[in-house]
Amino acid sequence: MISFENQRFHLRNKFFSYVIEISRGKYLLHRYWGRTLKEFRDSAPLQKIDRGFSGQLADFENERTFSLDVVPQEYPVQGHTDFRIPAYKVELENGTNISELNFSSYKIIDGKPALKGLPASFGGGQTLEIELVDACKNFTVYLSYTIFEDSQVLARSAKFVNSGNKKIKIQNAASAAIDFADNNFDIINLYGGHAAERTIQRHKVQRGIFEISSTRGASSHQQSPFIALARPDATEFTGEVYAAGLIYSGSFSAKVEAEQFGTTRLVIGLNPDVFSWTLEPNEEFQTPEVALNFSADGLNGMSQGYHQFYREHLLRGKFKDKVRPILVNNWEATYFDFNEEKIISLADCAKDLGLELLVLDDGWFGKRNDDNSSLGDWFVNTEKLPHGLKGLADEVHKRGLKFGIWVEPEMTNVESELYRAHPDWILHVPNYKPSYGRHQLILDLSRADVREYILDAMRKVFSSAPIDYVKWDMNRHMTESFSAKLPADRQLETQHRYMLGLYEIMEKLTAEFPDILFESCSGGGGRFDAGILYYMPQTWTSDNTDAVCRLSIQAGTGLAFPIISQGAHVSVTPNHQVGRVTPLQMRTLVAMAVTFGYELDITKMSDVDKSEVKTYVELYKELRPTIQLGKFTRLLTADKDGNEYAWQFADDKKVIVMYFKVLSKPAEPVRILKLAGLDADKLYTMKKYLPPKKLGVDGGPQKISFDEKSFYGDELMYSGIAVEKIETDFAAYMWVFEVE
Ligand code: GLA
């Protein structure tokens, strides 16, 4: 998959080609990324143009058509004739951060070396490692590129080694930079806020620099560490899309620069605003990995590429490709106000409804009856649970359900035994008062003693009872990122050291407790990223459980992350976050479109609703292999006016289509949904059809099966299915086809 000929590396599989050129024996240029080429013979050579004010390096003073400012580079530095945004900056002992990286050697390795301490893709492939040495031999950079036979994703990262004999300080170290020859792109990114994560934004590349970033010590609700450059004519099904997804859970930055000569540079990696790293001689620094994804088949092609890559080359553990249990979580049912009896009553009801896992959320430990206290005190509150977690877990298991708990190990409260014993364990700046978020303080995970405490506390909890599932939360983001253990000139290492500490803890606990299904969370989706998915194969997508809001949140999340990794729960109506009243069928189908559960007091549901829930639960059990493990396609533009969504899930047995319409409108054309990716010659038999139920109409789904009809794949793809017009707001439809 990787060849080296005529000073060019050509990385090639059936999905894409990527070409790197060594120019003038030492500069590493980016020459091509896109559809697979048989060979790269340079049909569009770099043009020799004398560009004013683009300077020459000393060795080429008289060659005015050559400047680093005008050539496409693999890993550029600023201030050395390139004036565009840099991929890295390394401060040398004399105070400069100007350097020059020259090609030195390369290696092609079978497979993929692991990245020390960091989440990264794995599983086959071939890796090109290029060694670049600073012209004054102060340091060395290794650029790593892994190509997999079965994936359209290229994994890139960089490693810095202090190969000189003086201390250096890395001020900036991107995971990757890519130069594109033109700027005819739309940028697609996912922005949001707490309870409003990952809204899709698409806008034209404009001259200047556009940045998405987080300084929060978490990938954040506000911007997802994902960015795509799509050709303006790219649709869900056609056109070229180039995307970058960072496999990292902390502060990040992704910048797109459209510069003077009409080219575009993309740089993605750690956020230099909150990062630096000192390297003593012989020490090394590894950047996080970025998943570069080329799709020639539009945005669905991009999403499917990420879904497949993350599921097959990133998710780990015994649950990675197992269908996930249908859970009920007590958070929106009881908040902090529960006792053993209440939880057992939920378990009784859950059993009756056919649910499979009961999750005890926040409030079971210390003296935690509200969010003011007890984080860090990981021992059971026996006033609420007189028989402990073990007693409760046994009761839940007796009912044939699995048992899960909530923890938030990275935090403490002033009102806690932990804080009273170790006030210096939190992130804080000496002499300044620490800041709070939800009354809590962040433990300094860059410290080994803090990590040991957390590991010990979690080991005790996880082995104190038969626990099948753990929801790992993080309910505030970082301020005062200062560690009492680090010297002054290393304080900007705190955030990244915290992440390495977190990953170390997660690595150990997930390895020691392989039978626990872990779900991550940060006030919903404040840390929904590919980094965390390496340790925990699913994430609570959002604290917003309103079905209408969830359409947009799940559409955005699905753009870059697998369906099986997103948790969604049916909650009560009116909804607790936005007060909206929606029919049970819509709440259910929206949650069924990913990894499904319930989060309401199911004991208080009417008998009619309960019987409806039983029907849906049975249905989801039958459909979930296709939904969670099948191929996902958006049949309509991901967030079409925020009013209509159409999602298809397919495997070789079933094709499921869901269609949602938020508000009903008069005088609209009949909506035809054209199915995608079917086999034209196969027969597909429509086995189930759920038209929407009108608001306030009681009873189970109106009809769940009807006269079976069979169609060839070509007709379903090219003529499509017509959506029956039913006048109601919050309409949710589902069709299930079985493949011949
Ligand atoms: C966060 C989570 C919620 C719930 C609460 C408990 O906000 O996202 O689902 O677990 O914490 O405090």
Characterise this structure:
The longest helix has 23 residues, at 607-629. This protein is of the alpha+beta class. Helices cover 19% and strands 30% of the residues. Bound molecules: alpha-D-galactopyranose. Alpha-D-galactopyranose (GLA) is lined by residues 331, 361-362, 406, 473, 475, 521, 523-524, 540, 543.
Q: What's the helix and strand layout?
A:
Layout: E1 2-5, E2 8-12, E3 17-23, E4 27-34, E5 88-91, E6 101-110, E7 126-134, E8 140-147, E9 153-161, E10 168-180, E11 186-191, E12 199-204, E13 208-214, E14 223-230, E15 241-247, E16 252-258, E17 264-270, E18 277-279, E19 284-286, E20 289-295, H1 298-313, E21 327-329, H2 331-334, H3 340-353, E22 357-360, H4 388-398, E23 402-407, E24 411-413, H5 417-421, E25 440-442, H6 448-464, E26 469-472, H7 494-512, E27 517-520, H8 530-533, E28 538-540, H9 547-560, E29 566-570, H10 584-592, E30 595-598, H11 607-629, E31 631-634, E32 644-650, E33 654-661, E34 672-673, E35 683-690, E36 709-712, H12 713-718, E37 721-722, E38 731-739
Parallel strand pairs: 21-22, 21-30, 22-23, 23-26, 26-27, 27-28, 28-29, 29-30
Antiparallel strand pairs: 1-2, 2-3, 3-4, 5-10, 6-7, 7-8, 8-9, 9-19, 9-20, 10-17, 10-18, 11-12, 11-14, 13-16, 14-15, 15-20, 16-17, 24-25, 31-32, 32-33, 33-38, 34-37, 35-36, 35-38
Short description:
This protein has 740 residues and is of the alpha+beta class. It is built from twelve helices and 38 strands. The strands form seven sheets. Strands 6, 7, 8, 9, 11, 12, 14, 15, 19 and 20 form a ten-stranded antiparallel beta sheet that branches. An eight-stranded parallel beta barrel has the order 21-22-23-26-27-28-29-30, surrounded by five helices. Strands 5, 10, 13, 16, 17 and 18 form a six-stranded antiparallel beta sheet that branches.
